[in-house]
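Hi there, hope your week has been kind to you so far. For a while now I've been wondering how a particular protein folds. I'm sending you its amino acid sequence along with the backbone structure tokens. Could you read through the record and tell me how the tokens relate to the sequence? Take your time with it, there's no hurry, and the full record follows here.
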Amino acid sequence: MRADVQKELSITDDEKTKLTDLQQKSRQGGGPGGAGGAGGGNNGGGPPDMAAMQKMMAERRAQQHKDLAAILNDSQMKRLNELLLQREGNNALTQEDVQKALNFTSDQTQKVKDLMTKQQEANAALRTKQQNQEMTREEVTAARTKNTQTMNEELAKILTSDQAAKLKEMQGKAFTFDTGNGGGR
């Protein structure tokens, strides 16, 4: 729904109408990400189940891909996938389909899982510190930003040089996202 991405994909007025309808359907709970979908509940106040969340996100991405492919042509879908990978950066390495495309070894997959667990634990500790008023919201936000940056750096270290080149190729021609255009996908 980003204007800059729509321009890059040469979205027609008809496609834009269909995309808007799809977004409305999703918001009303009739599709991925809507009110009717699983929202990342946290097991009665405990830490979220990362495996369940990963599965839910993969299912959501697959459904979004299917819905978008019914509206966009193959060329638009290819470019959209490139843009999504650019937007995700190294965080895309947490996605099973990206790991498969890069021929991850079981060791690499485990390293990603371990990093995700460490980040989850660090962020849970930050939530607790904020709830206990040991840290302000601003301090927590800064710490989470630092955690995300560290995660991205560590994810990059998992790749072989061939995999890093393949990921760059999968991202396609560099695109500069309009920062004043919101963060929608």
Q: What stands out?
A: The helical segments are 3-8, 13-27, 50-69, 74-88, 96-101, 106-131, 137-158, 161-171. The first helix runs from residue 3 to 8. Residues 1-28+52-91 form one domain. Residues 31-42 have pLDDT under 50 and may be disordered.
